[in-house]
Design brief:
With 143 residues, the chain is an alpha+beta fold. The protein has 1 helix and 7 strands, in the order H-E-E-E-E-E-E-E. The chain has a domain of 98 residues. The strands form 2 sheets. Strands 3-4-5-6-7 form a 5-stranded antiparallel beta sheet, covered by helices on one side. Strands 1-2 form a two-stranded antiparallel ribbon.
Length: 143
């Protein structure tokens, strides 16, 4: 009869452990990166809608709430997506705004992205750490 020795089994288990220790972080990072376009798409959409609102009202809304005029479209609530929630604030002159996406579940937690009326993109939290990047980070702390 042929069988595996204890040493062979231990070697195989150790090899699987080494492979798993490298694969699990890579897979987790892949999952995290796969959620970020959800925020990026919604931020770009909200920016376009804010520009449409500006064309109709010549401002972005009051400082308490963006796109707040009577009869404003239902999108003005900046509804949350599956993994991100969104907020919008205007400046005191109502001629500028910032829409912010904050990760609220899963691998999106610890991420905060924003866009303003000029189209400037910013990342203020990435992988749970505070950063100050003038772009939307996806893979590393560099644009």
């Amino acid at each position: 009869m042929r069988a595996f020795t204890l040493v062979e089994v231990v070697c195989i288990v150790a090899a699987i452990g080494v492979l798993a220790s490298a694969a699990l972080p890579a897979y987790s990072d892949f999952l995290r990166r796969s959620l970020l376009p959800e925020a990026f798409g919604a931020l770009a959409e909200f920016r376009a809608k804010m520009e449409q609102y500006y064309q109709d009202h010549l401002d972005y809304g009051n400082t308490a709430r963006c796109a707040d005029a009577n009869g404003a479209a239902t999108w003005s609530a900046f509804n949350a997506t599956e993994h991100f929630s969104f907020t919008c604030v205007t400046d005191s002159a109502q001629q500028g705004f910032t829409v912010t996406a904050t990760g609220r579940s899963g691998a999106a937690l610890g991420h905060v992205f924003s866009i303003d009326q000029k189209g400037d993109r910013k990342t203020s939290r990435f992988k749970g750490a505070a950063v100050s990047a003038n772009c939307w980070l996806t893979k590393s702390n560099a644009c």
